[in-house]
């Protein structure tokens, strides 16, 4: 099966497994795991923050970040289709008493004015106060879209003036960095808390990291333990993270080219399906409103041909390229997919 459901489906390579085998470990709840400690230092350095904390999942890293910024009964604002709002099962409300309000953006792309239009900092005793703004880069359900740096900077400036914090859901910040050449630090310096995933395009089996100030990391360490996320000899996973940064970060550019090929093959059937120029990174989302079949039906046809994508809405099909997808796999996809699309295209 050519599995394009997500970049989370990668399996650790032989080299990564060797790194895991050779990892020096200790009890990380005691702060004794040298491989975790060095990975946290490395990622803090990359993002330009004082400190960082290894977490089992991106959701936990996000949730730790926002709970440090927003008090119970205050609000976080985010884009309508952001992962924090749609895909973390209400964790901000359940664990932290945080309410959310959303602005809508085409392909999830940030315009500072959209966020600022709904922000209500210091709302007094009757209305909920906005304490933090979350930005997702790249934007998953937006089709891997990259956030414009000038809009991030503008939002940072305006939000800082009214005392609002900014959280970066950077699960795929690596992809944005590789695609634009903008340094991780340049992105990172605009945020108070940052989460990054090692288990997406970088190909580690498990692991995310929260990066922020030393003081917040000390608090995050307590909350991580409280959430049941204090892990012991977890250097075996951190070693995979180091390996991923050493070997796999630079390979993301291939994922981006492969995603572009999928988009171009679809656009050749109908430009209404996808505009290849909007495919910034490793995600292609098809708008199937011009098709007589649903995303689930098209996906079923694809599966019969040995290709699997993710039907994330009735007419919304997502393809994600990743480390375990080869150029030959893409040859196969572009040989099969246009024919299936053509068959169900509504004139
Ligand atoms: C995958 C992802 C996360 C974290 O997901 P986990 O499955 O909890 O690791 C967070 N944000 C975005 C945008 C993601 O795509």
What does it look like?
By secondary structure, the protein is of the alpha/beta class. It folds into 2 domains: 14-247, Aspartate Aminotransferase, domain 2 (3-Layer(aba) Sandwich); 251-346, Alpha-Beta Complex (Aspartate Aminotransferase, domain 1). It contains 14 helices and 12 strands. The protein has helices at residues 14-21, 34-47, 58-69, 83-86, 91-96, 112-118, 149-161, 173-180, 184-188, 214-226, 235-247, 252-267, 295-304, 327-344, and strands spanning 2-3, 51-55, 75-79, 99-103, 130-136, 165-170, 193-197, 208-212, 283-287, 307-308, 310-313, 316-320. The strands form 3 sheets. Strands 2-8-7-6-5-3-4 form a 7-stranded mixed beta sheet, sandwiched between helices. Strands 9-12-11 form a 3-stranded antiparallel beta sheet, with helices on one face. α1 (14-21) packs across α11 and α2 packs across α11. Bound molecules: pyridoxal-5'-phosphate. Keywords: Lyase, Pyridoxal phosphate.
Termini gap: 31 Å
User: Which structural class should the secondary elements be placed in?
Assistant: alpha/beta
- CATH class type of the largest domain: Alpha Beta
CATH topology of the largest domain: Aspartate Aminotransferase, domain 2
Strand content: 15-25%
Distinct small molecules bound, one entry per kind:
pyridoxal-5'-phosphate
Number of distinct helices: 14
Fraction of residues in helices?
40-55%
Q: What's the shape? A: globular
What topology, given as strand order, has the largest sheet? 2-8-7-6-5-3-4
């Amino acid at each position: 099966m050519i599995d394009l459901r997500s970049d989370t489906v990668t399996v650790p390579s032989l080299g990564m497994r060797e790194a895991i085998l050779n990892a020096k470990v200790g009890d990380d709840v005691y702060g004794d795991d040298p491989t975790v400690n060095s990975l946290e230092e490395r990622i803090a350095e990359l993002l330009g923050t004082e400190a960082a904390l290894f977490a089992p999942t991106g959701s936990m890293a996000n949730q730790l970040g926002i709970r440090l910024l927003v008090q119970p009964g205050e609000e976080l604002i985010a884009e309508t289709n952001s992962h924090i709002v749609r895909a973390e099962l209400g964790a901000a409300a359940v664990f932290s008493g945080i309410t959310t309000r959303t602005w809508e953006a085409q392909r999830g792309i940030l315009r500072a004015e959209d966020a600022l239009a709904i922000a209500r900092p210091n709302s007094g005793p009757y209305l909920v106060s906005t304490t933090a703004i979350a930005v997702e880069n790249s934007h998953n359900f937006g089709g891997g879209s990259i956030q414009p740096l000038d809009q991030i900077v503008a939002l940072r400036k305006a939000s800082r003036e009214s005392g609002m914090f900014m959280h970066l859901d950077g699960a795929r910040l690596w992809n944005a960095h590789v695609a634009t050449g903008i340094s991780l630090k340049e992105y990172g310096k605009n945020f108070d808390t940052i989460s990054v995933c090692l288990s997406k395009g970088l190909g580690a089996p498990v692991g995310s990291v929260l990066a922020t100030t030393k003081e917040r990391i000390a608090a995050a360490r307590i909350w991580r333990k409280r959430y049941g996320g204090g892990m012991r000899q977890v250097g075996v996973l951190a070693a995979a993270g180091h390996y991923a940064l050493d070997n796999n970060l630079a390979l993301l550019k291939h994922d981006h080219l492969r995603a572009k090929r999928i988009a171009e093959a679809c656009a050749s059937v109908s430009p209404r399906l996808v505009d290849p120029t909007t495919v910034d990174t490793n995600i292609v989302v098809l708008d199937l409103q011009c098709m007589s079949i649903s995303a689930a039906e098209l996906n079923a046809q694809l599966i019969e041909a040995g290709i699997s994508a993710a039907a994330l809405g009735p007419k919304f099909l997502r393809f994600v390229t990743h480390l375990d997808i080869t150029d030959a796999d893409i040859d196969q996809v572009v040989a099969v997919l246009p024919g299936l699309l053509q068959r169900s295209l509504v004139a």
